[in-house]
Specification:
mainly alpha, flat
Length: 167
């Protein structure tokens, strides 16, 4: 689909598949610049991936998924033109639980609608916007306190240099 391999090259590749595991598992080779390989190795060393191959398979999967999602326009219901579709990553057990919740408690509602309701309810009950605002204020206050502490420290150092105050 995305590969632009000439027809005769694809046929010869398929005919020499005797040493391959199967039609579903084939190897490909990539030429990468040294800097790209160093970046790949940094992910492996950090433990995020076990090998370069695992990292490349994950990257390829994500690329293909993103390309497929961009090729298929997500339908927006005509009744709700102001809604924005947002992809969410969930564990399989979370999906099962929320799907069961949607079918049992939500009268057969699909997972997207269940998640949207849970987010909206959380916004109302937890007052997420208030929590965010409170955090921003406290973060701003902490930054101001750090700046004042730095100014006090510099002032103390100046007084020590002048011999007015000693430790």
């Amino acid at each position: 689909m995305f590969d632009k391999t000439p027809r005769n090259q694809a046929d010869s590749s398929a005919s020499s598949a005797g040493d391959r595991v199967g039609a579903e598992e084939e190897r490909i080779a990539l030429r990468c610049a040294r800097k790209e390989l160093q970046l790949l190795d940094s992910f492996v060393v950090s433990g995020e991936f076990r090998s370069r191959s695992e990292l490349m398979r994950a990257a390829l999967r994500d690329f293909l998924r993103a390309r497929a999602m961009s090729a298929v326009a997500s339908p927006v219901p005509a009744a709700n033109p102001g809604l924005v579709e947002v992809p969410v990553r969930l564990r399989s057990e979370e999906v099962e639980t929320l799907s069961a919740y949607g079918s049992l408690v939500g009268n057969g509602r699909d997972l997207g609608d269940v998640l949207a309701d849970l987010v909206r309810r959380g916004e109302l009950e937890l007052k997420v916007s208030e929590l965010v605002q409170r955090h921003r204020v406290s973060a701003h206050g902490a930054a101001e306190n750090r700046a004042q502490l730095g100014a006090l420290r510099r002032s103390a150092e100046d007084l020590e240099k002048k011999g007015v105050v000693g430790r």
